[in-house]
Design a protein that fits this description.
Helix content is about 20%, strand content about 30%. By secondary structure, the protein is an alpha/beta fold. Helix 3 (about 85-90) packs across helix 5 (about 190-200).
Length: about 350
């Protein structure tokens, strides 16, 4: 059994975080999201994986290599221009045989791929789509089924008046190898908009697997913060967060520092005197919090330096940022290598581009 993971997108909704970092390497509780996905697949004995790449492919290849470090075998497939979900699979066809799994690379979930594959095989389906309920199906692919779970309609990003169910494509599907005969080579082609409708119109069996448990599309800044809140709250079964001594073992905290709520530190972090860290908070390797700071409901990537009396709340701060003394970062997103100058205020909704020296103007 092989899986193909779609990692070639530009992740524009996560900009500026993804200006220099591919979406698949964006950290979730200090581990790249793609590593979470690969380890999840391994738990279901799916250990042969094709990474379908385009944008910013080199750091992905450098990090994952041949997959041996993760107990997997990984092939790297490249496209010069975006080919869509089905086009990417067609481009990697030489690696695929028999039934294969396709996954989006921005989903954290508790999906049971073993059960899903069993449903696919028992129904002798051409495709089986993981589905999950959401509040607003207009942002996703709506999936209608009959009482036996057979797909009767598939509508990508429906208008509000077209919504008939809250069950949507959860970003994972099994397919038989011969469905790739429907996909023209070197063409931008979509499973969701092209292949699935063709299968339905020709009467081919397609089924849905309603995923129990946790599911989130990590495609926006708010959802990115939410997945950290959820993991630290224990809502995601397959991404358990460390707690107690395990969560704080790598931090050197001054005796007067106050660390409350769910907080997770990477290696070699430090927290200064009379600083407050109020969870949910995740800090990556090498973060330094000086004296009298407040960090609350935020995610800090690697090597973030927070100067004396600075405040960070409800924010995402990427690698190698420096927040100077007395500055405030509130409900904002800072890309890598940003400097916020002393006393400056980064206000709610701000998205600061890589390498910026921000003075509050």
């Amino acid at each position: 059994m092989k899986a193909i993971i779609l990692v070639g997108g530009r992740a524009t909704r996560l900009l500026p975080l993804t200006a220099n970092t591919p979406k698949s390497l964006v950290p979730v509780v200090n581990v790249p999201i793609l590593e979470h996905i690969i380890r999840h697949l391994g738990e279901h004995d799916i250990k042969e994986i094709v990474l379908a790449q385009g944008h910013l492919s080199q750091p992905i290849q450098e990090y994952f290599g041949d997959g041996s470090r993760f107990g997997a075998k990984i092939w790297h497939s490249y496209e010069d221009v975006p080919l869509g979900s089905a086009g990417a699979a067609k481009n990697a066809e030489r690696y695929l045989d028999n039934t294969f799994l396709v996954l989006n690379s921005d989903i954290i979930s508790d999906t049971d791929f073993t059960v899903m594959l069993d449903i696919h095989r028992r129904n002798k389906a051409k495709a089986t789509i993981a589905t999950t309920p959401v509040e607003d199906p207009t942002q996703y692919g709506l999936v209608e089924t009959n009482t036996s779970g057979r797909v009767t309609r598939f509508l990508e990003k429906p208008k509000r008046e077209e919504v008939t169910t809250n069950m949507i494509n959860a970003g994972a599907w099994f397919a038989e190898a011969d469905v790739l005969s429907l996909v023209p080579p070197r063409t931008n082609f979509s499973f969701e908009r092209n292949v699935f409708p063709q299968l339905l119109s020709s009467g081919q069996p397609m089924y849905a697997y309603a995923c129990p448990g946790y599911w989130i599309d990590m495609g926006t800044h708010e959802k990115y913060l939410q997945v950290h809140r959820d993991i630290l709250a224990g809502k995601c079964r397959r991404c358990p967060a460390p707690s107690g001594r395990e969560a704080t073992r790598d931090v050197e905290a001054h005796g007067t520092a106050l660390i409350t709520g769910a907080v997770m530190f990477g290696e070699k972090c430090s927290v200064g005197a009379r600083s407050r860290i109020v969870g949910p908070v995740v800090m990556g390797t090498g973060c330094v919090i000086e004296d009298q700071c407040t960090v609350e409901d935020s995610v800090l990537w690697k090597n973030v330096h927070v100067g004396r009396r600075a405040t960070v709340t409800g924010s995402i701060v990427a690698d190698n940022c420096r927040l100077e003394a007395g500055c405030t970062v509130q409900n904002a997103v800072l890309a890598d290598n940003v400097t916020v100058l002393a006393g400056a205020v980064v206000r709610a909704g701000a998205k600061i581009e890589p390498g910026t020296r921000f003075n509050g103007a």
